[in-house]
């Protein structure tokens, strides 16, 4: 029988889009399945120009934006594509976490293929699907537990929690007939769950893994200023101390750690954190997965309020949060009492909020990859128009380049495959074990080989 193989169907020399296929005899398991953040993805589909709902897989296959893998896609997603529908030939999909670039293409998958996720990730996906237009399809969902092995034929998968900018993120040890693969998913070690990341890499080193598949988002040039989560808290505390005006913030809506940080800082400053109805819904759904009192919940947590933005129609899931929501007039009139976390898509509310000139705006997200980033340009147009002060305070969801190299060396893997990075060459200094993968090339996994 041929040895098991690794194949990289996405995430090669690009940010996001991880799709890792492990084949061992008759067994085929896919790890993550989401779109890339590569600019190429926007060469054909952007804004309102999107794949047709009647044949999304066909439309993405046309431009090689998803891999041509028989037995993966649903009949409906393929439509009359030249990749004809066949019964499932992939036996399971494991999702490392709920970010779109790791889970965003699940709606294309054949509904007979089991999708394995952590319990918390399943809760997040359900909350996202309820409160957005994003759907993940119908699947036999399987929820795994931390460090509890899951068997798919002859392959054994052990999920380990890791620290990331979205909760319930996992790395995996994948045991095959010819050795073990460690796949990191996305991770960091400067957030509140850093101990989880350390434990995963210690387990990988102890296992003596034959291949390490490691994300490298921050490998290579990294001009962006990144803090620890504690550093963000300290910066916000300093900014709010003595501030007499409305304070504004913008962060990723699913960064639960950051929302908890902003809430704690607001309370310390005698303010309430004000969030959107969508964020309120997400916090309400995920809070039971955390220790009691850890995550603020609207209606149950002191100093957490909901903002009622102007809309003609409200959704059913929004309505429980809107009964006591704050209007623009209330926030404007009593601005000193609030830290308003405003989603970028809701910036038009500033027209009614009329923040005082010199009011602080905390940008708690990644700085743009390039100076001409269009969203960044638009963001500053709005801030400059109203005269508010921009402050960058962000803790990345990814390990730094130096940390990545140290982890590669400490793990001692026989072969290292950097993915989810535009700079796999930045890993070369970690030693001869590093191999920059190519798309759709099978890499044999043989115990003790390089």
CATH topology of the largest domain, which one? Metallo-beta-lactamase, Chain A
Assigned CATH class of the largest domain: Alpha Beta
Please mark out the parts with pLDDT under 50 across 5 or more consecutive residues, or reply none: none
Oligomer: single chain
Coarse shape = globular
Under the CATH scheme, the architecture of the largest domain is 4-Layer Sandwich
- Proportion of residues in extended strands: 15-25%
Q: Major β-sheet, in short? A: 7 strands, mixed
Quickly count the helices.
13
Key features?
alpha/beta, Metallo-beta-lactamase, Chain A, six-stranded mixed beta sheet, 13 helices, 19 strands
List the helices and strands and how they pair.
Layout (H helix, E strand, L loop, with lengths): L4 E6 L8 E6 L2 E5 L24 H6 L13 H4 L13 E3 L5 H4 L11 E4 H13 L9 E4 L5 E3 L2 E8 L6 E8 L2 E5 L10 H14 L3 E5 L13 H12 L6 E5 L4 H13 L3 E4 L1 H10 L17 E3 L12 H4 L5 H6 L4 E4 L8 H4 L6 E5 L9 H13 L2 E4 L8 H11 L3 E5 L23 E2 L6
Parallel strand pairs: 3-4, 4-5, 5-6, 10-11, 11-18, 12-15, 12-16, 13-14, 13-15, 16-17
Antiparallel strand pairs: 1-2, 1-19, 2-3, 7-8, 8-9, 9-10
């Amino acid at each position: 029988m041929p040895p098991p193989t690794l194949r990289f169907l996405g995430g090669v020399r690009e940010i996001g889009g991880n799709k890792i296929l492990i084949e061992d005899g008759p067994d085929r398991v896919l790890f993550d399945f989401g779109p890339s953040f590569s600019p190429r993805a926007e060469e054909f589909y952007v804004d309102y120009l999107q794949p047709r709902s009647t044949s999304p897989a066909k439309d993405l296959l046309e431009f090689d934006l998803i891999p041509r893998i028989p037995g993966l896609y649903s009949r409906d997603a393929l439509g009359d594509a030249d990749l004809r529908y066949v019964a499932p030939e992939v036996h399971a999909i494991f999702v490392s976490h709920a970010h779109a670039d790791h889970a965003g293409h699940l709606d294309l998958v054949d509904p007979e293929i089991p999708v394995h996720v952590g319990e918390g990730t399943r809760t997040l996906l359900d909350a996202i699907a309820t409160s957005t237009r994003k759907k993940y399809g119908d699947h036999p969902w399987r929820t795994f537990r931390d460090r509890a092995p899951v068997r798919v034929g002859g392959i054994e998968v052990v999920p380990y929690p890791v620290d990331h900018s979205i909760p319930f993120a996992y790395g995996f040890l994948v045991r095959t007939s010819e050795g073990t693969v460690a796949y990191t998913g996305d991770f960091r070690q400067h957030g509140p769950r850093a101990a989880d990341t350390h434990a995963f890499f210690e387990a990988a080193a102890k296992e003596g893994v034959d291949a390490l598949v490691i994300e490298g988002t921050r490998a290579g040039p990294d001009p962006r200023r990144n803090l620890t989560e504690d550093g963000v808290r300290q910066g916000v505390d300093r900014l709010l101390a003595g501030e007499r005006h409305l304070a504004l913030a913008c962060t990723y809506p699913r960064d639960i750690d950051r929302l908890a940080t902003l809430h704690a800082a607001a309370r310390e400053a005698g303010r309430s954190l004000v969030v959107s109805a969508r964020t309120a819904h997400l916090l309400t759904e995920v809070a039971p997965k955390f220790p009691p009192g850890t995550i603020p919940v609207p209606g149950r947590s002191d100093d957490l309020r909901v903002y009622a933005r102007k809309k003609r129609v409200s959704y059913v899931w929004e309505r429980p949060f809107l009964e006591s929501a704050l209007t623009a007039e209330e926030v404007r009139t009593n601005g000193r009492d609030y830290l308003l976390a405003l989603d970028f898509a809701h910036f038009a509310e500033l027209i009614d909020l009329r923040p005082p000139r010199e009011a602080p705006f905390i940008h708690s997200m990644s700085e743009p990859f390039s100076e001409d980033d269009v969203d960044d340009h638009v963001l500053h147009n709005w801030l400059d128009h109203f005269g508010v002060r921009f402050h960058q305070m962000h803790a990345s969801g990814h390990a730094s380049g130096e940390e990545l190299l140290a982890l590669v060396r400490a793990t001692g893997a026989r072969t290292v495959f950097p993915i989810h990075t535009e700079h796999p060459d930045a890993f070369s200094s970690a030693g001869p074990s590093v191999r920059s993968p190519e798309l759709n090339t099978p890499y044999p996994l043989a115990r003790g080989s390089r």
